[in-house]
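Supplementary Note 3. Input sequence used for the single-chain structure prediction.
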Amino acid sequence: MEKNNKYDVVIGLEIHLESKTKSKMFCSCLNNADEKNPNVNICPICMGHPGTLPLINEEAINNIIKLGLSLNCDISSYTKFDRKNYFYPDLPKGYQISQFDFPICKDGYLDIRGEKGVKLIRINRIHQEEDAGRLVHMDNDVSMVDFNRAGVSLIELVTEPDFNSAAEVINFVKELQLISRYLNVSDANMEKGEMRIEVNLSLKKKGEKVLGTKVEVKNLNSFKSVERAILFEIERQSNLLDKGEKIIQETRGFHDAKQITLSQRSKEESHEYRYFPEPDLPPLEIAKERISKLKGEIPELPQEKRHRFEAEFGIKDKKILEIFIENKKFGEYFEKVTTEILDWMNCEKIGENKYFDLIKLSCNYLTSDLIGLAKGEITDFSNKISPENFAEFTILVFKGDINSKIAKIVLKDMYDWGSDPSHVIESKGLKQIDNEEEIKRIVKEVLDCNDSAVMDYKKGKLASFQFLIGQIMAKSKGKIKPDKAREALSEELENIK
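The predicted structure, written as discrete structure tokens, is reproduced below.
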């Protein structure tokens, strides 16, 4: 249980993001997360062969600066790289090139949805380092090493211990993932290891200022794993404290199958890594002009887009809003549709008071029917239905030229064949019946076949009227507007004595 009456939960995060670069951090080897064959994207530099010299990837530095600016960080004018010394089978050099005392970004923040409204999460630092390789554990208790990932540009973000619940952590991580994707600095795909979360969690008695002993939890490769690991660790530490036992400062791993954390090793302190300046790389000076240029390249970010979509399109439904925000290309498709709708309104001199009604109608069909046709896959649908055609479809529904039943038929045909709605309506004979004589003929045929319902209506049974309307709509295959059907039926019933 996350909620308890005895202890305050305190959480800080360490987040690793693989930077979206063509080559690795210090060599020209390909950075390809989709490579299936092991040990093909390697060279003497990323394998740490003696006598080789690293070279700084400029694209990676630009990426981390853009991320730092988007998270309200101060960008250092002076930075340097350091060697972080430790032994692990997937670390070919025997050390990692990282940053210790002069990170590129520091003292930032990000606003998230907290338990009591908007909450500011402080970011201690964002620094640049290189990734390790990947261990592949075989069935025969043998582990193999794939070094394709070794040397890939890795962004490490460290927060202050400002989180008090699993929900807050998830909100932060999801927003960071979105920001990374909007900036195009990382795909942040957790399944591919492009975004990895480490949770530092401690408990302290309610109201106390002194923090408890923190435990680090690794191996968190999904939002679900992050949430479950936090909840398990809160319960585990609570039980130990209730028994009067001490919390050991250690590193634990999350076991997905068992949904528990397991002890791995005692937690290292920074001095244990024996940091010292990287001798093969000079200090890096970042000019103000460069920072200013990169700041100008930052696009509209998720939170800015949320505020704009709410104000500009009147979207109040948070679920619909998040569909557009979380799927950037789909949001762009929606905006193209709204532009076409607005152009039509201006041409037809439709009052602005109808604008939000049209947009709401468009949102409903986009986020329910269209996504349903795509079997839940959300993308830019331009290759299926052009924004112009979708806008026309929305307008036809809005004007009442097609009813909801026919609309589904038309939209499916548009999706399957890329047709424009007018062509679908014409070719399938779905056009609304506007001819008054034709409407009267259909009404009379229905009345002739339903004498008992007519008699019941004459006796005052108003439900019979709705029954007859249903029969008219069925006979016309929904091609008569309901108001036209009601008007014609009322007139014919009046003529019956």
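Residues 310 and 318 are 9 Å apart (CA to CA). The chain has three domains: 7-296, 302-427, 436-495.
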